[in-house]
Design a protein that fits this description.
The protein is of the alpha/beta class. The protein is built from twelve helices and 19 strands. The protein is globular, with a radius of gyration of 23 Å.
Amino acid sequence: MKFLHTSDWHLGRAFHRVNLLGAQAAFVDHLVETVREREVDAVLVAGDVYDRAVPPLPAVDLYDRALHRLADLGVPTVMISGNHDSARRLGVGAGLIDRAGIHLRTDPAGCADPVVLADVHGEVALYGLPYLEPALVKDEFGAEKVSHEAVLGAAMDRIRADLATRPPGTRSIVLAHAFVTGGQASDSERDITVGGVEAVPASVFDGVDYAALGHLHGCQTINDRVRYSGSPLAYSFSEVHHRKTMWLIELGAQGEIAGAERIGTPVPRALARLRGRLDDLLDDPAHAVHEDAWVEATLTDAVRPDDPMARLAVRFPHTLSLAFDPEGREEEDGASYAQRLRGRSDQQIAEDFVAHVRGGGHANEAERAVLQGAFDDVRADDSRQETHR
């Protein structure tokens, strides 16, 4: 049985103010054509269908058209909500849509209610495990503590218990939206750290034949049975070296991974990160290959040049980001605010602020716990308010 694993569509998202709806529509076209040409048995969408809880109407329209086209193919689609989605909004009409072969799994309480498909080798149970905000679902799952590992582990216990009641030899797939240990992050994923910990071990998915993951935007293999498809488009310059793909997974008769093929997705425009003095960037023939790319330029001139963006745009008309890092300056003191924050979590930024106002004294363990608790409470409160809007 063949499954097309994708995730993190982020419909409605822009790239440095560039509207990506056309590129996202091209991806949907490609997805539908791949399902048809490769005779896919089911489509798996592992969360973050939208970029925000209340998406713009053009994004909703694209989503609606995608569902209609997948339903028209007669190929089942299993879709979960991610941390960017409003689970409640995405799940509206799930019972009715289910009849068309589009199976939305947005309610954590229903995680052990699988979509069951069958072929000549028997049944395959597909479990949809939506993004679990630990503070909101701890009681639902009776988890021992508020953490991603605890709630995911408890949810997987339910899934394994259901699987144990099914006919011997039933194969299984789980869709989940989480940060699994060993995965490589990029700048475009929203921080989901809870209690100072964001990653869960891959072993949490033991007992199922394949875990189709979403959240991280780079396509990657944690192990043979646990994989991220990544996002179909680049959503930050940190993804400049990503090859955007979907996974075509073939599940064998005994639940073995009989095939795992990366299917490339359309690239609207290449990305380039350029660094150097302005005159060198404008004159160096080696940069000719980047002239039609979306460009992030970091200028190293000792003195800031006049009209740098306008001059860059002459050669690189799609320059979207401009930063300055003059040669010879003290790196820490001279780095821009954005550079100092790049790759740092909210917790780390807050601790840096404590050190700054103290003139160098770092936050102690108790203070770090207070800060982390505050961030956890704010995120949980935001999710709670979203649920009740």
